[in-house]
Amino acid sequence: METIKKICEGNVRAASRLIRDLEDKLPHARPRLRQLFKHTGKSFIIGITGSPGAGKSTLTDALIAELRKLSKTVGVLAVDPTSPFTGGAILGDRVRMLRHAEDEGVFIRSLATRGALGGLSQAAGDAIHVMEAMGKDVIIVETVGIGQQEIDIINHAHSVIVVMVPGMGDEIQSMKAGILEIADVFAINKADRAGAKQLHTELASLLNSAPQSAGAWRPPIVMIENLYEPLTFVEQTAELAQKVAEHYAYLQESGQLDKRTERRAMMQINDALRACIMEPVIDNLTASGELQYLAEKIKNREIDPYSVAEEISKRFLKSGGINDIDKK
Amino acid sequence: MPDRKIRVMVAKPGLDGHDRGARILARCFRDAGFEVIYTGCHQTPEQIAAAAIQEDVDLVGLSCLSGAHRLLFPRVVELLRKKDASDITVIGGGIIPEADFTMLYEAGIKAIFTPGATLDSIVEWIRNNIKTHD
Ligand code: B12
Ligand SMILES: Nc1nc2c(ncn2[C@@H]2O[C@H](COP(=O)(O)OP(=O)(O)O)[C@@H](O)[C@H]2O)c(=O)[nH]1
Ligand SMILES: [Mg+2]
Residues whose CB is under 5 A from ligand 3 (ion)? Predict the structure, then answer.
C-alpha cells in the first residue's frame, strides 16, 4: 500500500523499483499494478520510432526541453535491444538526454527488450501505467527501431512520430505501406544532408496518394536540419513539438482519442490475459518438464500440437476448455 | 522464484575523457548478461546519482583515469546516501594509486580495480556481491 501511495506522489525510487519488479516478473508486482490502474489514463503518450541512429533519442531530448518550457512533467521510456546470445543489453539512449538528469520534472527509464519483437519490451505497457500513476503529463516512448515489424507502439501511444533520415535506407520504397498507418507526424532528421528534399517529396506524394476523408488528420512532415546548428535545431524541434500537440488536440476534438484509448484497452486485455493465463501455464509445463516431453512427441509426429493445446486447456481452464468458451 | 536481472550503470564523472575502459566494461557486462546503462563522459556526481535512482540499478561503476577520484567517487556515494539509496553499490576503477584505496573504502566505495584487472575478475566480483533474489 505504501508503494502505491509513494508512486502516486511521484516518488521515483518506488516507481522505478516497481517497473523493475514488473520486468523481472516478481509475484507481488502485478497486484500492485492492479491497485495503480485507477490512477492512470490522464497522460498524453507519444511514441517515437525509426531506424537505429535516426536520431530518436536526440529528438526525445529536444522534445523534453520543449515540454519543460511549458512546465509539463515528462516520463521517458527508452527501449534498447537485449542481446539474444547473452541476455544482456547496453542501454545507451540516456546518453542523449543527460541535460535533464537532474530535473525533478523528468523521469527517464531505460528498458531492454528481453526478447520481445515488436520494438518495445513486454513490460513497456506496465511501465507506462506506472508513469501515468506518477502523474506525468506527457510520456514519451522510444522504440528500438530495428525494422518494419515494430508496430507495438501504436497500441500504446496516442501520437506516433516516425523519424527518417536521408540516405540511410529510409527511402519510401523500402518502408512500404505500414509506415502510413503508424505515423501521425513525420520527422526528417539530419535534413541538411543530401537527399532530404527528395525524401520529403516522395513522402509528400505518398501522403497525397493515400485516400483522404474530409476532416481527417494529415500527417505533417517536419524537417530537422542539424543538431549542431543550435538555433535552427531548437526552432525546428519546437515545430515538431507543436505538430504533436496539434495532433493531440485533433484527437480530442474529433473523438479519435476515445477510439485510440479503446484500442489501447483491447491491447491491455490481450497482454493481461497472456500474463495471467498463458505464462503460468507455460511456466508450469516448463517446470514439470512436460513441455519438453510434448515437444519431443510432436517432433516424432506421435501427436499434434492442436490436440496438445486442447488437452492442456481442458486441464487448466475450469470451464472445461477452449471449446467450452466458444459455446458460451 | 525468478532470478532478478542484474542492472548496472557505468559512468565517468568529471572532465576525464578516457572512455575506452568504460566502453570495454559496458560491453563486457552486457556479455555477462547484465543490463548496462551507459552514460558516457563528463558527468557530474549529481547526474550520476539521479540517473542511478531513475534506472534502479544494483550497482554504479565509476571510471576515472584523471586523478580526480578522491573527490568525485565519495561524492557519488554521499549523494546516493542522501537520496535514501545507499543500497546501491558503488565500485570504481581507473588510474588509482594504492595509497588512495583506504580513503575510498572508508568513503563507501566497495571495490577498486586498476589497470591489469581482468574483466572476469570484475564480473565475478559483481556476481558475488549483488544478490539476485529478494
Ligand atoms: C589511451 C590513453 C589516452 C587516449 C584516450 C582514448 C580514449 N577515448 O579512451 C588519449 C590519447 C585521448 C589520452 C589523452 C590524455 N591522457 Co591518456 N592515457 C591513455 C593510456 C595510454 C591508456 C588508457 C586506456 O585506454 N587503457 C585501457 C583500458 C581498458 O584500461 P583502463 O581504462 O585503465 O581500465 C581498466 C582498469 O583501470 C579497470 N577500470 C577502469 N575503470 C573502471 C571502472 C569500473 C567500474 C571498474 C570495475 C573497473 C575499471 O578495468 C579496466 C580493465 O582492467 C593511459 C596510460 C595507462 N597505461 O593507463 C594514459 C593516461 C591515463 N593518460 C594520461 C594523461 C595525462 C592524458 C592527457 C591529460 C594527456 C595530455 N596532456 O593531453 C589526455 C587527457 C584526455 C582527456 N580528455 O581526459 C595519464 C593520466 C595521469 C594521471 N591520472 O595522473 C595516463 C595514466 C598516462 C600517464 N602515465 O601519464 N589518453
Ligand atoms: N549530423 C547530425 N547528427 C545527428 C542529428 N541528430 C542526431 N544525430 C546523431 O546521430 C546519432 C544517433 O542519434 P540517436 O539520437 O542516438 O539515434 P537513435 O538510435 O534513433 O536514438 C548520434 O551520434 C547523434 O549525435 C542531426 O540532426 N545531425
Ligand atoms: Mg536511441
Answer: A 56-57, 93
Q: Which domain holds residue B13?
A: 7-129
Helical ranges in A144-229 per DSSP H: 172-175, 178-182, 196-209
Q: Give, using CA atoms, the residue closest to atom 8 of ligand 2.
A: A55
Q: Is A45 exposed, middle or buried (0-12, 13-18, 19+ CB in 10 A)?
A: buried
Give residue B95 CA to ligand 3 midpoint distance, Å: 31
Measure B91 CA to nearest chain A CA, in Å: 19
Q: Report pLDDT digits (tens) over A215-251.
A: 889 999 999 998 888 899 999 999 999 999 999 999 9
Distance A56 CA to ligand 2 centre (A): 7
Question: Which residue, judged by its Cα, is nearest atom 18 of ligand 1?
Answer: B18
Read off the pTM. Answer: 0.92
Q: Which helix (H) or strand (E) holds B48?
A: helix B45-55
Considering the domain architecture, whether residues A190 and A237 belong to the same structural domain is answered as yes
> What is the count of structural domains for chain A?
2
By C-alpha distance, the chain B residue nearest A84 is B33
Nearest CA in chain A to B53: A13
Q: Are residues A187 and A284 in the same domain?
A: no
| CB-nearest partner of A88 from B31, B53, B84 | B31
* ipTM greater than cut 0.90: yes
A297 C-alpha to center of ligand 3: Å? 44
Q: Which grid cell is B97?
A: 594509486
In a domain, A5, yes or no: no
Structural domain including A302 reads: 268-327
C-alpha distances in angstroms, A80 versus A26, A273, A325? 22, 25, 38
Among B2, B36, B85, the residue with its CB nearest the CB of A88 is: B36
pLDDT digits (tens, 9 = 90+) for A160-186: 999 999 876 655 655 555 667 789 999
Cell of A234: 531548437
Question: Which amino acid, one-letter code, is at A58?
Answer: T
Task: State if residue A237 touches ligand 2 by the CB under 6 angstroms criterion.
Answer: no
HSE-CB of A232 using CA atoms within 13 angstroms: 12
- What count of CB pairs under 8 Å joins A to B? 90
Inspect the interface and report whether the beta carbons of A90 and B50 lie closer than 8 Å: no
Is residue B42 assigned to a domain?
yes
Query: What spacing in Å lies between the alpha carbon of B63 and ligand 3's midpoint?
Result: 23
Crossing angle of helices A279-288/A290-299, nearest 10°? 90
Indicate whether B1 pLDDT > 50. no
Nearest to B131, CA basis, from B82, B81, B88, B77 = B88
A260 in any annotated domain: no
In a domain, residue B105? The reply is yes
